[in-house]
């Protein structure tokens, strides 16, 4: 039995579909299982990764877990998983853990804490470390639909935008193919793109120009204050500044795991174009 955590997320949803398609036994966990809409025949269970009382029922009969990185009770989760007979965990972590000061970076630390806890446990752990999700561009949907400029403090900062379907398909390979057990995989998109470049590709997908406003750091933080705590906003700004005009390294891990190259951002933009045009 496969247990998929974070069941409402895009990666978990796609992974569940792939496992069900191939008639593999799968259970989906979420803190709010009533909000899930899995394929017919897929069981759901309440699983709150901050509440150990929900762990035993979710893990009953499970041998492989796809795990979102939630650090609060990871030691308890690992212990209960081992007690329940789980033999393999595939962790969705982040390439931010590979940074020079990951332990001091609030964006990286939660992922690093989960990695370290699992690696110290008896569980065989496979780690997927995606870079920047292409879906981060979804934050631009509101101003684009409103006809307003997109605020970018570092429009020429590079990132390695990866399609959520590539992450899910890499996860499928990791949970089902024993050759990948215990591996560490840094997942990237196929291109090092600037935010300005992504905006251009998104504009082409929706068929109209998208204006950009070059915001100061403080201006951007004020705009995001209701959505991103200041400590995380500063960490994001520092990361963007460090990659301003500097291409990011790319990997072929998606192709290694899935057998196909990573999807370009143009594909993501086409797949999600209506999210930037619908009222």
From TrEMBL:
InterPro entries: Ergot_Alk_Oxidoreductase, NAD(P)-bd_dom, NAD(P)-bd_dom_sf. It comes from the Bacteria. Residues 6-178 form the NAD(P)-binding domain. This is NmrA family transcriptional regulator. The lineage of its organism: Bacteria, Bacillati, Actinomycetota, Actinomycetes, Kitasatosporales.
């Amino acid at each position: 039995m496969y247990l998929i955590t974070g069941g409402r997320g895009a990666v978990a949803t796609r992974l569940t579909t792939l496992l069900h398609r191939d008639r593999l036994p799968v259970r989906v966990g979420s803190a709010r299982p009533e909000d899930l809409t899995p394929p017919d025949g897929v069981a759901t269970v309440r699983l709150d990764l901050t509440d150990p009382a929900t762990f035993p029922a979710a893990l009953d009969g499970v041998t492989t877990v796809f795990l979102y990185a939630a650090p609060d009770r990871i030691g308890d989760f690992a212990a209960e998983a081992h007690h329940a007979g789980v033999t393999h965990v595939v962790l969705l972590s982040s390439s931010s853990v590979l940074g020079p000061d990951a332990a001091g970076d609030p964006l990286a630390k939660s992922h690093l804490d989960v990695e370290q806890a699992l690696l110290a446990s008896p569980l065989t752990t496979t780690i997927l470390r995606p870079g920047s999700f292409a879906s981060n561009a979804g934050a631009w949907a509101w101003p684009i639909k409103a006809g307003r400029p997109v605020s970018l403090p570092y429009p020429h900062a590079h990132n390695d935008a990866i399609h959520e379907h590539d992450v899910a398909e890499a996860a499928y390979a990791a949970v089902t193919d024993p050759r990948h057990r215990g591996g560490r995989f840094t997942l990237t998109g196929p291109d090092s793109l600037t935010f300005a470049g992504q905006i251009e590709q998104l504009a082409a997908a929706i068929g109209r120009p998208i204006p950009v406003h070059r915001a100061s750091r403080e201006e951007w933080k004020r705009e995001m204050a209701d959505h991103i705590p200041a400590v995380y906003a500063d960490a994001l700004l520092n990361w963007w500044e460090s990659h301003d005009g500097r291409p990011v390294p790319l990997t072929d891990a998606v192709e290694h795991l899935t057998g196909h190259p990573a999807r370009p951002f143009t594909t993501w933009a086409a797949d999600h174009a209506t999210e930037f045009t619908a009222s």
